[in-house]
Specification:
Order of helices and strands: HHEEEHHEEH
Largest sheet: 5 strands, mixed, barrel
Subcellular location: Membrane
Number of helices: 5
Number of strands: 5
Distance between the termini: 19 Å
Helix content: 40-55%
Mean pLDDT: 80
GO biological process, one term: detection of calcium ion
Structural class: alpha+beta
Main location: membrane
Radius of gyration: 29 Å
Shape: elongated
Membrane topology: Multi-pass membrane protein
Strand order of the largest sheet: 1-2-3-5-4
InterPro entries: K_chnl_Ca-activ_BK_bsu
Length: 211
Amino acid sequence: MARSRAAYEYTEAEDKSMRLGFLLIAAGLLSLLGLGCCWLRPALQERGGGGSANCTVLAVRQLGERFACTFSCGAACRGTARYPCLQVLVRTSRSSAPALLHEDERQPRTHPKCSYIPPCARDDQENSENVTYKQKYWKEKVGSQPFTCYFNQHLRPDDVMLKRTHDETVLLHCFLWPVVTFLVGVLIVVLTICAKSLAVKAEAIKKKKHL
C-alpha cells in the first residue's frame, strides 16, 4: 500500500500541470458566469424581438435645443461644449409609423432624442458644422434610397438602429473563449492523470520483469 501511494505521488512538474489545469477550469467557469450575467444576457435581451428591415428617410431636422458634451484638450484639461440635436425620422418596411434612427443599441439609452452625436470639439461652431454635414448627408446622399436598419419591437418600438453592436460574431466569441479555456484546463488535467497512470503501470511491469 505504501509503495502504491508513493508511486501515485505527483512530481513537481506534474503538480504544476494539475494546478494550471484547475486554474484554467476555474477561469473558464467564472468567465462564463460573469459574461453571462453582465453582458451576454443583456445582449440577448437586446436582440430578442428584433430583426432587420429596409428603412427610408422621411425627414431630417435639427431640434432647437442643444446638448452638452465633454471634450478633452490634454491630460488634465477637460471642458464642456454644446452641439445641436439632429433627428432622422425613417419609415421601415415592417411599419408605416415613423421611427427615430439611432447609431446603435446604446445610443437610445444615452441620447434618446438624437440620431447623431458628433465627436465633441472644443468649439461649439465646429460641433454645429459636423451636425450640419451629417444632416446634408442624410438629405442629399441618402435621400429616398432604402437602407438596412435594425429594430426591437419589445424594448424600443419607436426607435431603429443603423448598426448592431451585439451581433452574432460578438456573441459567439463571448461564449467560445471561456468554453475553450475550460476545455483546455480539463484536457491538461486528464492528460496529466493519464500520463501518471501509464508511468505507474510501466514501472510496475518493469519491476515484474526483474523479479
